[in-house]
């Protein structure tokens, strides 16, 4: 029997994985620091500085998470990681990030006034997962918004997640001559940025942005439980052992039932199920006998299901109840399937494109009203 402070194998594996990530970031930071010292080109220095900042942010997040786990263990508040049923997590993608720049009329339309140029990038954070966007160079008064083509995908995200978007900037030209730029960029980018917006760029940024956020719960595509069940769709006075046998599979907020399990599971998936029981916030499940449980769907139709092994009854009812809770927790993401695009394969320097028609700048109200966009689920 485990004592109050005994680490379970699952917890030990998680801690080991986190420590491995910390060790990796330490090596990455050491290598990037050496690279930064050897950089001679301004763009190389900016890229190295961005990588160093990102690595530091990741390592800080890992260390904070490790400390929180140890504190929870000491206080006896750690979660039971050995539970038979866990809440479904999800993949979350962020793409099409566009941030409008608000300049004075004389700056943008008359090409006078503010002549500074900036390098800009973003950090996106959910828990300990931290990703950076490509570095956008030469942002100046001729640009009305900054757009990032990056597609960032987070994995194993809980339903109560909070997504943080942080924008960083570095002045790469603050006078009319670019000759002095390389010398000035040699300073670490982290010394001239804040957690939200670079100080010198803050006046040009509006608290308005747009992004495409997609959420796809894992339980939509991943089977939660499957086995043979005997099923009755109506009040049946026959013995449950005489009910027809179905192959049952729980996923995508439905309980799929086939009269037979084919040898090829891919063929089974292609074959239309004989019965589909919807699982949503109106579904109820209740054990009525040692081996029988009922599912009542939102149309008040009740199905009786008989487990072939009495020990599986609790497992089935727990999984279905958790599936109902997942539906409630993920809300619209459970009702409407969202497509998760493939993440950006690599980080490459991107040259700012000319503003295309329909720019976010044109859509931004200038009368003090704001565009509502939330990064919190």
TrEMBL record:
<dbReference type="InterPro" id="IPR051364">
    <property type="entry name" value="Cytokinesis/Rho-signaling"/>
</dbReference>
<dbReference type="Pfam" id="PF00169">
    <property type="entry name" value="PH"/>
</dbReference>
<dbReference type="GO" id="GO:0000281">
    <property type="term" value="P:mitotic cytokinesis"/>
</dbReference>
<dbReference type="InterPro" id="IPR012966">
    <property type="entry name" value="AHD"/>
</dbReference>
<dbReference type="InterPro" id="IPR011993">
    <property type="entry name" value="PH-like_dom_sf"/>
</dbReference>
<dbReference type="GO" id="GO:0031106">
    <property type="term" value="P:septin ring organization"/>
</dbReference>
<dbReference type="InterPro" id="IPR001849">
    <property type="entry name" value="PH_domain"/>
</dbReference>
<dbReference type="GO" id="GO:0005826">
    <property type="term" value="C:actomyosin contractile ring"/>
</dbReference>
<dbReference type="Pfam" id="PF08174">
    <property type="entry name" value="Anillin"/>
</dbReference>
<dbReference type="GO" id="GO:0000915">
    <property type="term" value="P:actomyosin contractile ring assembly"/>
</dbReference>
<protein>
    <submittedName>
        <fullName>Rhotekin-like protein</fullName>
    </submittedName>
</protein>
<feature type="domain" description="PH">
    <location>
        <begin position="222"/>
        <end position="325"/>
    </location>
</feature>
């Amino acid at each position: 029997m485990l004592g109050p402070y005994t680490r379970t194998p699952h917890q030990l594996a998680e801690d080991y994985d986190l420590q491995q990530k910390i060790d990796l970031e330490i090596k990455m930071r050491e290598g990037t620091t050496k690279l930064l010292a050897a950089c001679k080109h301004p763009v190389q220095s900016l890229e190295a500085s961005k990588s160093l900042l990102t690595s530091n942010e990741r390592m800080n997040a890992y260390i904070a998470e490790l400390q929180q786990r140890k504190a929870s263990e000491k206080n006896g508040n750690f979660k039971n990681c050995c539970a038979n049923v866990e809440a479904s997590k999800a993949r979350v993608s962020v793409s099409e990030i566009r941030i409008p720049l608000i300049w004075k009329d004389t700056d943008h339309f008359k090409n006078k006034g503010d002549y500074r140029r900036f390098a800009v990038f973003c950090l996106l954070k959910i828990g300990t997962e931290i990703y950076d966007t490509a570095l956008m160079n030469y942002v100046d008064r001729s640009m009305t918004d900054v757009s990032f083509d990056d597609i960032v995908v987070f994995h194993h995200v809980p339903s109560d997640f909070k997504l943080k978007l942080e924008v960083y900037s570095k002045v790469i030209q603050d006078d009319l001559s670019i000759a002095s730029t390389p010398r000035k960029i040699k300073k670490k980018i982290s010394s001239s940025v804040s957690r939200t917006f670079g100080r010198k760029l803050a006046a040009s940024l509006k608290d308005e942005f747009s992004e495409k956020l997609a959420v796809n719960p894992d339980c939509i595509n991943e089977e939660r439980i499957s086995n043979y069940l005997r099923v009755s769709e109506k009040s049946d006075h026959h013995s449950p052992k005489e009910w027809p046998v179905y192959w049952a599979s729980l996923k995508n907020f439905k309980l799929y039932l086939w009269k037979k399990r084919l040898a090829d599971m891919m063929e089974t998936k292609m074959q239309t199920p004989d019965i589909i029981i919807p699982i949503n916030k109106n579904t109820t499940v209740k054990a009525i006998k040692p081996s029988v449980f009922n599912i009542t769907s939102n149309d008040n139709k009740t199905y009786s299901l008989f487990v072939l092994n009495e020990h599986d009854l609790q497992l089935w009812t727990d999984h279905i109840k958790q599936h109902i809770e997942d539906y409630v927790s993920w809300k619209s993401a459970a009702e409407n399937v969202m497509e998760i695009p493939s993440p950006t394969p690599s980080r490459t320097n991107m040259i700012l494109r000319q503003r295309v028609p329909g720019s976010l700048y044109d859509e931004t109200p200038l009368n003090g009203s704001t565009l509502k966009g939330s990064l919190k689920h």
